[in-house]
Amino acid sequence: MPTYVITGSNRGIGLEFIRQLVQSPDNTILALVRNLSKDHSDLKALANDKTHILECDTSSLSSIRDFAKTARSTLGDSTKIDYVINNAGINLSAQNSSLQLAPDDLLESIRTNVLGPAKLVEFLLQQGVLSENVRVQNMSTGLASLKRTVDGEDRMCAGYCISKAALNMLSAHLAVDLRKAGLKGATVIMMDPGWVKTDMGGKSAQLSPEESVGGQLKVLQGLKEEDNGKFFRYAGDQVPW
Ligand SMILES: NC(=O)c1ccc[n+]([C@@H]2O[C@H](COP(=O)([O-])OP(=O)(O)OC[C@H]3O[C@@H](n4cnc5c(N)ncnc54)[C@H](OP(=O)(O)O)[C@@H]3O)[C@@H](O)[C@H]2O)c1
């Protein structure tokens, strides 16, 4: 009876996670959205009686803290979270190179793409709702690979890539720190979902959300403890750091 938490579940890749996870009646799903008062009809149309649509603005520490408390009260004392999918993300000033970084956009990207995932895990740990074998998937991108960036000719979305490379480093730290904190089988990975047709990926992207998320779930659900700290692509191969 696994329990999942997915941030940014109202559209794009996050919504597709919900669509695939509700297929299994065993799954309890905490489907997180930035603002509950917005229209979430697509998400509500998918939800079943084990899907809890809850608010979590990953750019706001108070919102993340409130969500962690709500997770505790929603799940009760005996149900623990088995999977945390830090999916919510932003790509601001995508056309800017490293010589044109927009300070406010870079700081907002770090806040949402790095601090949000970090604090979500930290506050859920504090609430005692993470399973001892929790799997944490931080949504990265192949564009955050230092090796690929150094080896390749093209550079794009500089601020976004900087924030996702920082998310990768966060993951490397969390992989050790969660186990030190007592979650002996905790396994933290980074995921490159491929180039996916969503608002962020655009219409020219290579993959449907179905194909990307189908692959990601296979990787996530098949993780072993020795996969802790690895950087996977949706198809199961590894991305060079
Ligand atoms: N699509 C791709 O090709 C691709 C490639 C590599 C990596 N990724 C990563 O995959 C993840 C999902 O991407 P996507 O393509 O599905 O993007 P998307 O279509 O732009 O959807 C982004 C999701 O993140 C949510 N979000 C953004 N900021 C938030 C905040 N402060 N609090 C709560 N939710 C927030 C959005 O909610 P709102 O509706 O409220 O804005 C939305 O649900 C991102 O982390 C992205 O960086 C995507």
Secondary structure topology:
Elements: E1 3-6, H1 12-21, E2 28-33, H2 41-46, E3 51-55, H3 61-75, E4 81-86, H4 103-126, E5 130-139, H5 146-151, H6 158-180, E6 187-192, H7 209-221, E7 231-233
Parallel strand pairs: 1-2, 1-4, 2-3, 4-5, 5-6, 6-7
The structure holds NADP nicotinamide-adenine-dinucleotide phosphate.
Residues 7-8, 10-14, 34, 57-59, 87-90, 112, 139, 141, 193, 195-196, 198-201, 205 line the site of NADP nicotinamide-adenine-dinucleotide phosphate.
**What's the number of extended β-strand segments?**
7
Structural class: alpha/beta
Largest sheet: 7 strands, parallel
Shape: globular
Number of domains: 1
CATH topology: Rossmann fold
GO molecular function: oxidoreductase activity, acting on the CH-OH group of donors, NAD or NADP as acceptor
InterPro entries: NAD(P)-bd_dom_sf (IPR036291), Sc_DH/Rdtase_CS (IPR020904), SDR_enzymes (IPR052184), SDR_fam (IPR002347)
Keywords: NADP
Could you explain the architecture of this structure?
By secondary structure, the protein is α/β, with parallel strands linked by helices. It has one domain: NAD(P)-binding Rossmann-like Domain (Rossmann fold, 3-Layer(aba) Sandwich), CATH 3.40.50. α1 links the parallel β1 and β2. It is globular, with a radius of gyration of 17 Å. The mean pLDDT is 97. The chain binds NADP nicotinamide-adenine-dinucleotide phosphate. NADP nicotinamide-adenine-dinucleotide phosphate binds next to α1.
